[in-house]
Structures are given as C-alpha cells and as structure tokens.
Amino acid sequence: MFNMAYIVSGFSVGLLVGVTGVGGGSLMTPLLVFLFGFKPAVAVGTDLLFAAITKTGGVWVHHGKHNSVEWHIVGWLALGSLPCALGTLYLLKQLHETGKEISGVITYSLGIALILTGCALLVRSVLMHRAQKAGLIDDDHSNEANAARFRRLHAPATVLTGMVLGVLVTLSSVGAGALGTVALLFLYPKMTTLKVVGTDLAHAIPLTAVAGLGHLSIGNVDVTLLASLLVGSLPGIWIGSHLSAKIPERFLRPVLATVLLLIGLKFVSQ
How far apart are CA 223 and CA 235, in angstroms? Predict the structure, then answer.
C-alpha cells in the first residue's frame, strides 16, 4: 500500500510547503513527472486529491481558530472556478474517450502554470510588503484610495479570477495558492494577509476536490501514490511550519521562484 520513495518525497515537499507557504502542486507535480516518470495526467490527478485532503486541515484552523475566511469572496471565486473546472473535465474526458492524447495539453498547461506561479511568488512578496507598510501609515486618504481599487468590479473580477483558476488548476494542479493569493492581494488591498491566505485556502478545497474527483473518474489517480504522499507530507508540513520562523523567507522564496520558472520553461519547450 505504501512506497518509501513516495513517502520521502511527500515529506520533502511537505517540509518546503511548511517553510515557504508555496502550494504543494507547484513542487509535487514536477517531482512526480521528472523523478518518478509518471504521466503528467496521473501526476496532476493524484496531486489534486492530495491537495484537497491536506488543505482541509488548514482551513479548519483558519476558520475555527482565526476566523480568517471571507466566505462571500470564496463564493464569488467558486462561482467562476467550479463550472470552469467541470467544463474542463468534460473536455478532457471526451478527448480521453475518443483515444486522443491529452498529455501534451496537460504538459503545456503545467509549464504555463509553473511560470505564472514563479512570477506570482516574486510579486506576492512585494504586494505583502506594501500591504504591511500601508497598515503602518496613518493616511486615511491613501487608504481610502487603495481600498477603492476595483470596488465596483470586485464581484465580477473575483468571478473572472475564479474562472481562470478553475481551468488552470484542473489542467495542471498548480496555481490555486500563489496565483489566487496574488489576485486577492491586488483586488482587496485592505484585507489582512491572514484573511487572504485563509480565503484562498478555503476556495482551493472545493476546486481541487472537484478537479481531483473528475480526474479519478477518468483514471488519472494512482491510489498507492496518493496514500504514500499523504503519509510523508503531513509530518513534513508540521515540521516545516515550525522551522519557517528560523529560516529567512526572503532568501528561499526567490530561489524557489527561479526553480519553478526554469521547470515551467522546460515543460513548455517539450
């Protein structure tokens, strides 16, 4: 039922996720493809269910302990993402049933998602720094102008963001974390970092669950791999979360962003 190599990989990725806060899909999916030789479709499908399970505990903490989930924003995101995820799954299933190869589409989508995630990691650091700095400045006019950004378009812009995430995450298992966070930081500049993370995490669960179950119905999930990754990653995330305060994020995040950009370029060029 369990494979030690997969358990060790799950632990390693969990450790990095705990330290850096980067979504596991950005790290796990390329690892499964390049190190273990899984087909991109199987790597994506397995990682989506893996993400749905591991993120559930995080949302429980954010909602129950911190009360840091803006559920109306989760609803807007889901209004766009879930129909698009279902539509993407339908197209993938049709292609699969007609015998057409979907690996090329998934590989290219994975590359694009990794490149966007790498860029998002760099941008997110700047946005978070500005948000924290803005909170220290007692300038009502500046804050009001900042808060008014896209105010009238909040709902449609959030739904549109969800639509993009729905397609991208279903095809690649990447993007729900970094890209979602950047979009929320840009659209809701006065929202606290804790609420941004909690809201994005809450939206990621139904999206990855729907996409993962869809891939399972197509046959793109390896159950043995999934179980082994869970066994390894959960203690890895716990240890990484405790180490995060001791390891300077400003050094790790740019390195990780660069690695994701390079891996993304490799996928796109295949």
Answer: 20
Q: Please state at what angle helix 178-187 crosses helix 193-218, rounded to 10 degrees.
A: 140
Is residue 175 within 8 A of residue 116, CB to CB? The reply is yes
- Mean per-residue pLDDT of the chain: 81
Determine contact, residues 83/214, Cβ cutoff 8 Å. no
Q: What distance in Å separates the CA atoms of residue 81 and residue 163, rounded to the nearest whole number?
A: 4
On whether the CB atoms of residues 135 and 128 are closer than 8 A, the answer is no
Could you report the per-residue pLDDT of 211-236, keeping only the tens digit for each?
999 999 999 999 999 999 999 888 88
Distance CA 161, CA 183 (A): 7
Amino acid at site 17 = V
> pLDDT tens, 41-92?
999 999 999 888 887 766 665 556 557 788 999 999 999 999 999 999 999 9
- Give the chain's radius of gyration (CA, Å): 18
3-state helix, strand, coil in the chain (%, to 5): 80, 0, 20
For residue 248, how many C-alpha atoms fall within 13 Å in the half-sphere facing its CB?
Answer: 4
CA distance 256 to 19: 11
**Which residues span the domain enclosing 186?**
4-269
Nearest Cα to Cα of residue 64 among 173, 164, 189, 201: 201
Instruction: Give the rounded distance of the alpha carbon of 174 from its chain centre.
Output: 5
Contact 69, 202 (CB under 8 A): yes
Per the structure, how many domains does the chain have? 1
Please check whether residue 72 is in contact with residue 255, taking contact to mean a CB–CB distance below 8 angstroms. no
